[in-house]
Amino acid sequence: MKIYSTLSGKKEEFTPQGDEVRIYVCGVTPYSDAHIGHAMSYVIFDVIRRYLRYKKYTVKYVQNVTDIDDKIIDRANKLGIAPRELAGKYTDSFDEDMKALNIVRAETDVYPRATEEIPKIIEVIQGLIDKGHAYPAGGSVYFRVRSAPDYGKLSHRSLEAMRAAECAIGSEEKEDAMDFVLWKATKPGEPYWESPWGQGRPGWHIECSAMSLKYLGDTLDIHGGGQDLIFPHHENEIAQSESFTGKKPFVKYWLHNGLVQLGGDKMSKSLGNLITIKEALKKYSADALRIFILSSHYRSPLTYSEEGLEAAQNAGERLLRVVSRDDPTGGKGEALDAEPYRTQFIEAMDDDFNTARALGALFDLASAINQAGDASVGIGQAQSTLVSLAREVLGLKLPRIINVEVSDGISMRATVEASVIPEAVSARVNRLIEERLKCRQEKNWQRADEIRNRLVELGVVLEDTKAVTGVTYKSVPSEELVDKLIAELDISL
Ligand SMILES: [Zn+2]
Fold this sequence. Notes:
By secondary structure, the protein is α/β, with parallel strands linked by helices. The chain has 16 helices and 17 strands. The protein has helices at residues 36-54, 70-79, 83-100, 118-130, 159-164, 204-216, 230-245, 277-283, 286-294, 306-324, 339-350, 355-371, 379-393, 423-441, 445-457, 479-488; strands spanning 2-5, 10-13, 20-25, 58-63, 134-137, 140-143, 180-185, 200-202, 220-226, 251-257, 260-262, 265-266, 302-303, 400-407, 410-417, 460-464, 468-473. The protein binds zinc ion (ZN).
């Protein structure tokens, strides 16, 4: 497997340091709803984690929450609420969005919050001071950039060029205009923590160094984030972490995703051209958003367009129709072999996570299934290959299909969009669906409608098309509630 690292500027063979792949991705500063740019970054790193797990790696993943920051304080002041309250609200909102986008939260993942990691942050800052890499001044602490001779190696620029480009903001306290803040002295009315240098709060860059050190150790395999984080944020992370541990490299592979554009501009808060994840999900399915994002290479910019999303929505529905196709049993015709498509998919993913090509292989497989004659052999097998790659690696939900035996060998099918429904609940709901399909078969429309209406009351919506009953969980009912309904309708389990 080859991965492109921003540090070397080329594709490198992927050799993690141990059995466990340690990944750190910069998280959000929760002061407003997350937008499509966030969706792109977190979907990409979700697919990377999924693929590594698919390849049987153990993955340890850490993603921080910058829950104290100038932006949070400013917005909270404008709204007249506590910064803590604002950050809590938008952290929850972000978590909801990630869940809606089907982004995996593994049990071993850690999502540390800056405000809960102050002791570790102070420890790292103190260590940097002790080694001469940082100095306190006026109640703040700054990193001494000229103490890190290879500063600029990630963004591939020299200190002189950075100075000339006026990247630096001077201040009387700093020894050098390029020095950046590790600890900020408190200003009146701001939240603060006690420290050896007085009351204050951590700078943004040091949080990520402290949290990655604490949860993943001195060396990470993969560090990810958007390309807008390369400088200064990730450059500063390298300087801090390598100066603190004395070990190089801090990160083996630096991965940066391209940015989302809208009508030729970067999508950003300051340009006021943001589309939030919540807005997008009102119009398009999570599968459509994921297909849209994964259709271009993760390092390229992604141009948001309604046409692009509609095409992705149609593509997702095409996959669904293909996996919903009946598998003709007892066929004696041509054999459909899904293996070459799976191989192409794997080769594409092994080549720096080329999801565009991997998706291409998936859609080629879909076309092959679609075109296979009714007497073909292996359609069911090809469908399950398609479903497992789409779900396991690309994180598509692709509603589950259940086969329901109705009577005398006549079966009907239902699709269930239910990746997060507890098995006990879905088993009971499926029993109700089965009963309803049986009623329809027997033309007992009244009882069929009753079952459907009662399920709607529990948040479970059934939609019939010719061949398939679609099931959507608007909310997930408790096991007890479904049991009660089953008893009231006098259905045996
Ligand atoms: Zn970071």
